[in-house]
Design goal:
Elements lengths: L5 H18 L13 H10 L5 H14 L3 H5 L3 H7 L6 H19 L7 H4 L7 H12 L9 H9 L8 H11 L5 H14 L22
Helix pairs in contact: 2-8, 5-6, 9-11
Length: about 220
């Protein structure tokens, strides 16, 4: 099979995203519950390898006790761990949340920064988290957040063959116009949950089955 040109891959990516845009109009770009940039940042940090629903169960208590960087920076890791113990890797996440809050106070005056470089300087924050915070809290799309859904679907759609999320992101940025970056994660997360499941994809009812190179 001949290698697909970037132009052809871009055209195919646009067609796939056009279809998903009809199925999932972008209203709220983040499915987590949050009320400001700080609560969004912490919620996304907690969501690693954990469902959004599980995060939303613990954050009301978490933010009622520590609603801002100053209060969370003063919390003990043990207390935060106890509050989020139902989540995977809760001790590491609790430690990173406290350290992140302390760095926000020390380096950013208690405010969540609005650049990629500054966000990824925070403990526990990688490009995925930074992309979501920039997109949802500051309405800026500097990249595409590659979580497990985006990673899986990008590879199934043969938009990337990379095996690392950061490299998958770079492949996607090459074939998806920057005007669409803000909606990719949201659409693909919903699509992944409803149709493109990791183990049992529902190809028979999939809205993009005619465009999918992995379809049976």
């Amino acid at each position: 099979m001949p290698r697909e040109s970037r132009a052809a891959k871009t055209q195919r990516a646009n067609a796939l995203l056009d279809c998903l845009a009809q199925v999932y109009p972008v209203e709220e770009k983040c499915l987590l519950q949050y009320h400001d940039a700080f609560s969004l940042l912490i919620s996304v940090m907690l969501s690693a390898q954990t469902t959004d629903a599980a995060v939303d169960k613990v954050t009301p208590v978490l933010f009622s006790r520590w609603p801002d960087p100053a209060s969370l920076a003063a919390a003990s890791v043990a207390e935060v761990s106890e509050t989020i113990h139902s989540l995977g890797f809760y001790h590491t996440k609790a430690k990173n949340c406290v350290l992140c809050a302390q760095k926000l106070l020390a380096d950013f005056g208690g405010d969540v920064p609005d650049t990629m470089a500054e966000l990824i300087s925070l403990p526990g924050v990688g490009r995925k988290t930074a992309n979501i915070v920039l997109n949802c809290a500051f309405n800026r799309a500097e990249g595409i957040a590659v979580d497990t859904h985006v990673f899986r679907i990008a590879r199934r759609w043969r938009l990337s063959a990379a095996t690392e999320p950061t490299k998958v992101e770079q492949d996607l940025l090459k074939v998806i116009d920057s005007s669409r970056w803000s909606m990719v994660n949201h659409s693909l997360v919903l699509f992944g949950r409803e149709y493109c499941d990791a183990r049992n994809p529902r190809c028979a009812s999939c809205p993009v089955v005619d465009l999918c190179p992995a379809a049976p």
